[in-house]
Amino acid sequence: MPDSREWPLWEVFVRPRRGLSHTHVGSLHAPDAGMALRNARDLYTRRQEGVSIWVVPAAAVTASSPDEKDAFFDPAADKVYRHPTFYVVPEGAPHL
Amino acid sequence: MTSGTATTFDLLLALGDDALVMAQRLGGWCTRAPEMEEDVALANIALDQLGAARLLLGYAGEVEGAGRDEDALAFLRTDREYRNALLAELPDEDFAVLTAKLLFFCAFQRLRYARLAGGPDERLAAIAGKAVKESAYHVDHGAQWTVRLGDGTAGSHARMQAAVDEVWPYTHELFDDEPELRAAWLSTVEPVLAGATLSRPADGWAPRGGRDGRHTEALAYLLAEMQVLHRAHPGATW
Amino acid sequence: MYGNDLGEPEALAGLAALAGQPAPATDGPAHLLDEVAAAERALAEAGARPAVAPGGPGDDELLAYFDALVEADQKVEPRDWMPDAYRQTLIRQIAQHAHSEIIGMQPEGNWISRAPSLKRKAILLAKVQDEAGHGLYLYAAAETLGVSRDTLVDLLLSGRQKYSSIFNYPTLTWADIGAIGWLVDGAAIVNQVPLCRCSYGPYARAMIRICKEESFHQRQGYEILHTLAHGTGAQKAMAQDAVDRWWYPSLAMFGPPDAESTHSEKSMAWRIKRFSNDELRQRFVDMCVPQAEVLGLTIPDPDLRWDDERGGHAYSQPDYAELFAVIKGDGPCNRQRMAHRRAAHAEGAWVREAAVAYAAKQSAREAVDA
Lengths: 96, 238, 370
Hints:
The complex is a heterotrimer.
Chain A: E1 9-15, E2 23-29, H1 33-45, E3 52-57
Antiparallel strand pairs in A: 1-2, 1-3
Chain B: H1 8-27, H2 36-64, H3 70-76, H4 86-89, H5 95-117, H6 122-150, H7 154-167, H8 181-195, H9 217-232
Helix pairs in contact in B: 1-2, 2-3, 2-6, 5-6, 5-7, 5-8, 6-7, 6-8
Chain C: H1 9-12, H2 32-48, H3 59-71, H4 84-109, H5 118-143, H6 149-157, H7 174-195, H8 201-229, H9 233-252, H10 264-269, H11 277-295, E1 305-307, E2 312-314, H12 320-330, H13 334-347, H14 349-369
Antiparallel strand pairs in C: 1-2
Helix pairs in contact in C: 2-7, 2-8, 4-5, 5-8, 7-8, 7-9, 7-11
C-alpha cells in the first residue's frame, strides 16, 4: 500500500527534438507535477535545450499489452505494473 | 565601505567569488539532500555556479595581467581578499536556509547577469548570457521550495519563516553597488514569499563588508577546507 | 552491478583465502562503448523478430513461454508472467546495484570540497551527480517489478539489503579518487556492460543508459592518477599508496571465486548474470596490467605475470576472509556510510512531508476551483 507520506511515482516521456515523438525513458518520484517536470528535466535530459517532457502519474497510466503473456489472460486495459503477488520482505531474512 | 567606480577586475572578482562560494556551499549538500532527486538538482546548480565562477575568475586573472589563473585566484587568496557578498558564505546546513539563499541570491545574480549580458564587454556579455539562463533555473528551484516549505506543514512553515528572517538582513548588501536593481529583485521575491504564506521581513539591520574583504567568520573555515590540499603542494599540477 | 560480492548466505559461508584458479581465456578487450552499442542494437533486433508463440492457460505453459522468451534472447517486460524466484532475484540485484550507486557517492563526495583545482572539482561533482542519477534509474527499474521505492530505501537503511562492499573503504587522499575511478569504476564497467544484455527489459535499458553516461568516469580517474604519477615526488607517492590500498578490494568486488558461488547457475540460465565471477575478475586484471604500465605505477602483486597457458595474467587472489568480514558489516566505513545515509534520510523527513502536504493542499484547491 502506498504510504501517504511517500512521493508518488511518475512516468517520464521525452521528445529529444522536433519531428520525433515522445518516448518513455523511465520513472521518478516527486511530490507533485511541477516538481516531477523539473526533476525529469534534471534526471532524464540533463537540461538539454529544445527537449519536450511529459510526466504522468504512474497511477494514471492505463496499460494493455496483447503480445505480453499476462497471467490473468485479460486483454482489457490494466495498470502498468501488475503482479499476482505484492513483494513482501520476510522479517529477519538475511541477505534478502 | 564600497568604492566609487569598480574596475573590471574588481567586478569580475566579485561575480566570480559570489558564484564560487555558492558552489562550495551547494557542493556540501551532495549526499545530504532530503531526497535523492534533490541531490541531483542541487549538484546541477552547484555545477552551474562553479562553471560561471571558473569563467569569471579566469577572465579576471587575464584582466589583472599578473599571471594568476582561476586556480591561483581561488586557492591562494585569503578571506580578506575574497569579494563575495556575505549572503553567499552563510552556513546553510538547514534546508530552509539553503532555500532562502537560493531564492534571494540567485534572483540577484540573474538581474546582475541580465544587465551584463547587454553590456559593452563582449566576453563578459557572453559569460553573463549563459549564466542568466542558468540563474532562471536556480531562482525557480528556490521559489518552488520556498512555496512548498512555507505552505507545507505548520512545522515547515515555521522553519522557513525563521530562515527567511535570518537571511533577509544579508540581502541589503547585494544592492550597494546598483541600488536600482532592488526594485526588480523585490518584484521577484515578494510574490514568492506571499505565495508561500510567508511574511516579508522588515528592513533593518544590514550587515555588509564582503565586497571589501571583511567577511563573517564562516568564510575562513570554508576557504580553509577548500584550499588545504592545493596549498599543501605548492606549484603542483592536478 | 558494482559488485558481485553481495552474496548468497551459502556462498559466503566458510570462505577462506583461496589460491587463484586458472580461468578460461576471455575475449580480447573490446572497446566497451562498442559493446554497449552492440547490446542496444541486439535489444532492438530482438524486438523486431517474430514473437515467441504464447501457449495456453496454466502454469506450465506460462513457464514454458517465459523460458522460450529468455532462450530466444528476447526481453522479459514488466507485465510478463515470471517465476517468483526470477522476480525476487532481480529485485534484490537491481536494488543492491541502486544502493551501491547511492552509497558510492559518499567516498567520492568526501573530496568535492577539497578538490585541488576548480576543474577537478567540477569533474568530481559531475561524476557524483551521475551516480545519484544512476541510482534513481535503477530504483525505477526495480519498481517495475512491483516493489515501491520507499520499501527499497527502507531495506537499505535497515541493513536488510546490501550495497557493494568496496564503498566501505575510506578515501584518505585525493589519489584515492583517481584509484576509485581507475579500479572501482573499471571493475564496475566489466560487470555492467554484460548486464546491458540482461533478460529483463527495464534493467537492460537502464544499464545501457548508465554505461553510456559512465564512459567518462573511468577515464577521469585514470587521468588523475596519470597526472599524479608524473607530478611531484609527493604526488607520485600519494598515487602509489592509493593503488596499494585499492587494488585487492577492487578484485574482491567480483565476489567469491566461482567454486564458492553456488547460486550463480540460476542467474546464468535466466540471463541475469552473463559471465562468472572468475571470468570477470580475469578480464579486469588483464585490462589493468597494461594501464598500470602506462601510469608508471605498480600493481601491488609480486606474483602478477603473464601466463601463456591461460592466455591471461596469473595473479594473487584478494583476501576473501576480509571480503566476508566487510560484507558482514566490519569494514572500515560500514557504520559510517549507513549512519550518514540514515541521518540524511531522517533529517530530510520534514522537507519531504512538507512537499506532500503542499501537494495535498494544491489538489484540494484545484478540486474547489474546478
